[in-house]
């Protein structure tokens, strides 16, 4: 049975992850700049300490055993948390203003985080960019301090609804729908639609809005990037639905469903036991206030 005095050190656990990712002790040793025998010895000692086999040999190297596969996400979470503790200690001992890392989808960096920092000098100095469905994992794993996301946060996190962003339909200037001030889902019957791939909060909102006409539209492209979605729309490949402002010569029109404006909620979330939870709470409040004062098209 393990106890606090018999736990593997983080360095060895990090080396375990490198071996898993490399698929070979020899390649992992080269990446870590240590000798192959030394790394093999570390892995053998780790297996002995845990009392289980972590790797199976293959013709090309090694692969994690069932126990090893179970250990991988636990080790990643542990290392992320350790890095979070290290950042906290460095900031506290330096007696400097606390700086934060935010986890969010790519479009949220461009549409929310970047302009918020530019206009307010908010203490966000790094980001973890990921799909909306994985954003909160970065906060739970402590690789990020704050999540700003378009999907509702899990109940275990402290959170705040900071904004509801209007969704737009982007078309080329010569498109017949460009003459309308707003475009309803019913106006998109028989249209070719370009929308972000599944896994984003925007996609969930758009899917709900298009539900009444779901059998009368065609999804022609599902990129993971808003920039690419609008680039495709600019070529005439289809009509783009997004929250980011129009690019590449497109014009944006308000998107409605059943004549009600379609809005995408944006949330901020953080761990309640974060060492700087009070500052994160204040930061979320500042983000909410800034969002409420933004000029919408």
From TrEMBL:
CC per GO annotation: cytosol
Domain HTH lysR-type: 8-65
Superkingdom as given in the UniProt entry: Bacteria
Keywords: DNA-binding, Transcription, Transcription regulation
InterPro entries documented for this protein: HTH-type_LysR_regulators, LysR_HTH_N, LysR_subst-bd, WH-like_DNA-bd_sf, WH_DNA-bd_sf
Segments traversing the membrane: none
Gene Ontology terms for molecular function: DNA binding; DNA-binding transcription factor activity
PROSITE patterns: HTH_LYSR
Family affiliation: Belongs to the LysR transcriptional regulatory family.
Name this polypeptide is given: DNA-binding transcriptional regulator, LysR family
Organism from which the protein derives: Agromyces cerinus subsp. cerinus
């Amino acid at each position: 049975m393990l106890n606090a005095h018999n736990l593997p050190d983080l360095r060895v656990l990090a080396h375990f992850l490198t071996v898993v990712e490399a698929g070979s002790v020899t390649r992992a040793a080269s990446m870590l700049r240590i000798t192959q025998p030394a790394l093999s010895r570390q892995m053998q000692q780790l297996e002995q300490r845990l009392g289980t086999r972590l790797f199976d040999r293959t013709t090309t190297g090694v692969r994690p055993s069932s126990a090893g596969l179970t250990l991988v996400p636990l080790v990643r979470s542990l290392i992320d948390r350790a890095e979070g503790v290290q950042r906290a200690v460095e900031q506290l001992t330096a007696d400097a203003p606390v700086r934060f890392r935010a986890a969010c989808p790519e479009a949220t960096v461009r549409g929310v985080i970047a302009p918020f920092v530019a206009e307010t000098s908010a203490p966000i100095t790094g980001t973890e960019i990921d799909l909306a469905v994985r954003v909160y994992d970065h906060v739970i794993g402590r690789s990020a301090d704050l999540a700003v996301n378009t999907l509702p946060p899990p109940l275990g996190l402290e959170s705040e609804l900071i904004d509801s962003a209007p969704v737009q339909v982007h078309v080329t200037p010569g498109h017949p729908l460009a003459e309308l001030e707003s475009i309803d889902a019913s106006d998109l019957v028989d249209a070719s639609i370009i929308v972000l791939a599944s896994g984003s909060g925007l996609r969930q909102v758009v899917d709900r809005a298009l539900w009444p006409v779901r059998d009368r539209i065609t999804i022609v492209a599902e990129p993971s990037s808003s920039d690419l979605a609008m680039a495709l729309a600019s070529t005439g490949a289809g009509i783009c639905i997004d929250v980011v402002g129009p690019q590449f010569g497109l014009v944006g029109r308000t998107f409605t469903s059943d004549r009600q404006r379609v809005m995408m909620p944006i949330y901020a979330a953080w761990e309640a036991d974060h060492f700087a939870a009070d500052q994160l709470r204040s930061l979320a409040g500042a983000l909410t206030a800034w969002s409420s004062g933004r000029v919408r098209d």
